[in-house]
Design brief:
- Helices cover 34% and strands 27% of the residues.
- It is of the alpha/beta class and 308 residues long.
- Strands 6-7-8-3-9-10 form a 6-stranded mixed sheet. A 4-stranded antiparallel sheet has the order 2-1-4-5.
- The longest helix has 16 residues.
- The chain is globular.
- The two termini are 42 Å apart.
Length: 308
């Protein structure tokens, strides 16, 4: 088996894919350094799923070069996937098996011997916060437990690269924080994570680098803090309420940029002091003053309109 590429766990160059004349991925290029967490962000329909399917060799691209773990994709996809783990968007655990049996059966797909898998199961369950649940039926597990078991299953072959498709969607805050902590452990062990998420706080917290896709094109990429500093004024004041929009539009000169969405006005400022002084004289308005974040970048680049 070929060795993992030393400088990039995944390299995508000039990726194109069309369906029925509609180009859903249009010349996407990025690289994921080994041992990092890389986020692939975008609204619904941006091309994220198609890009990931091409990277895994599940969809054949129309053009472009993909190297996954040093293997050419799709030609060597089967060999590459031996060193890859996948956490799908929706849990697809087998309800007829216990937690331990789900891990056992999945490990067999990789040709791992039963004795080896059996020895790994306690460590995998402990890592997922499921110690003592080896004999639990899937129907008895909570949604958070099922999600963590799906993560444990993705690690059964001790992969070098792990794809995570919205790993914390639908989870309560406690479960989300536990999964975040486990994902940080994986990168500390040298694993490479490729993450899609609609939670910008999750991407900002976990990702070393990220790329934003929209309409099949790569809009920007870089480290989260670098993108925030480059794209957005450092301070944001959100004003909300029935009178927020007209009040804000009359005072747009108090900030570098103003956006209004529904009953909320977003002032993007370098110096928020004049705006905050004006708000002190408007006690009927409610507001939040905060630092700019990755969600501000995402909405600036992809817009606030609803995507289906």
């Amino acid at each position: 088996m070929a060795a993992l590429n030393g400088d990039a766990a995944l390299r995508v160059d000039g990726l194109h894919k069309s369906y029925d004349g509609n180009e859903v991925v249009a010349g996407v290029t990025f690289a994921v350094p080994t041992g990092t967490c890389f986020g692939l962000l975008g609204p619904n329909g941006a091309g994220k799923t198609t890009t990931l399917r091409c990277c895994l060799g599940l969809t054949t691209p129309d053009a472009g070069d993909i190297r996954l773990g040093g293997f050419a994709i799709p030609a060597q996809a089967e060999a590459a996937r031996e060193r890859v783990g996948v956490v799908p968007q929706f849990d697809n655990l087998d309800p007829d098996f216990t937690a331990g049996e789900n891990l056992m059966v999945y490990g067999r797909y990789f040709g791992i011997g039963d004795a080896t898998i059996r020895a790994r199961i306690p460590e995998l369950l402990d890592f997922a916060g499921l110690a003592g649940k080896e004999k639990a039926r899937i129907q008895s597990l909570s949604g958070g437990m099922k999600r963590r078991l799906t993560l444990a299953r993705a690690l059964v072959n001790d992969p070098d690269i792990i794809f995570l498709d919205e790993p914390t969607t639908g989870l309560d805050p406690q479960a989300r924080h536990l999964i975040w902590e486990r994902l940080k452990r994986l990168t500390a062990r040298g694993k490479t994570l490729i993450l899609t998420t609609h939670f910008m706080d999750e991407a900002e917290r976990l990702c070393d680098r990220l790329a934003v896709l929209d309409h099949g094109r790569l809009v920007t990429q870089g480290a989260p803090r670098e993108l925030i500093a480059a794209q957005i004024e450092p301070q944001v004041v959100e004003i909300f309420g029935d009178d927020a929009a007209p009040w804000a539009k009359a005072r747009r000169a108090l900030s570098e940029r103003l956006e209004v969405a529904g009953d909320t006005a977003f002032f993007y400022c370098r110096d928020p002091a004049p705006l905050l002084a004006a708000l002190a004289d408007a006690p009927s308005l409610r507001y939040v003053h905060r630092a700019a974040n990755l969600e501000d970048v995402f909405l600036k680049l992809t817009g606030r309109e609803l995507r289906d």
